[in-house]
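Thread title: Can someone regenerate the structure for this chain?

I was given the following input by a collaborator and told the matching structure tokens would be attached. They weren't. Posting the sequence so someone can regenerate them.
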Amino acid sequence: MLLELATPTRMLVTAEVDEVVAPGVEGYFGVLPGHAAFLTTLAPGEVVYRSGQQEHHLAVAGGFAEVRPERVIILADIGERASDIDVGRAEEAMKRAAERMKQIRGEAGYDEVRLDYVRAVTRLAVARKERGGA
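Best answer:
Regenerated them for you:
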């Protein structure tokens, strides 16, 4: 099936794939060729796609996915290949978000900081998997 993953500024992936796993707002979902059609909102997380024995990992934050039996189209608010991720900056962002979470009292602001932390952790995981550091 065809996978197309785009952000507002660029096309990240156009490839024939055997499987796609993506972060939906209600949990991760997997797609194989011939899957029933559906549309879903994406959560921050990791998109994994497989072509043969080769797996690829991308970090996404928000957006939509449209699944059809022969195609998966992902329109991500933010999307990055592992090669685009600056590991040092991602580690710093994770540390900053963790520190901000410790300082929050009550619920005000927690969701935003938690989202920043999830994005940073996802970016690190994607970078390390693709670079063989997992």
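The longest helix spans residues 110-130.
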